[in-house]
Amino acid sequence: MKRFYILGVAMGMSAFLSSLFGCHVSDGDFRSLSVAEFKEYIADTAVVRLDVRTAEEYAEGHIAGAVNIDVLQPDFKQKSKAVLPKGKTIVLYCRSGKRSKKAARILSELHYKVVELDGGYMEWTKAGQ
Prior knowledge:
Layout: H1 2-21, E1 30-33, H2 35-42, E2 48-51, H3 55-60, E3 67-68, H4 76-83, E4 89-93, H5 98-109, E5 113-117, H6 120-126
Parallel strand pairs: 1-5, 2-3, 2-4, 4-5
């Protein structure tokens, strides 16, 4: 009986800690969109397109009209605050989706409305965009 009690306490504690420290792919105030959804979203001229890859990656090809701010640079927050308007939705992408999720979390914490392209520029070009 004591063994079941300890097991129950351990499971309860594990669930509690998971809820506190659990990881979610897109928690925060941003959404991850498929290529088709992203294409519809960026058709709105009121959104700001943001490429968070390196300048070299951006120069090799990017979505038309996208501003480039490298999320891996230490001044990403400062540049974003200086360039991105608070009142507009920021639609962003990277190469594969990993850096864009990082950027989306950062920008969400800065109270921007953010949408990111799941799968990144690779999925965008693979879909023929």
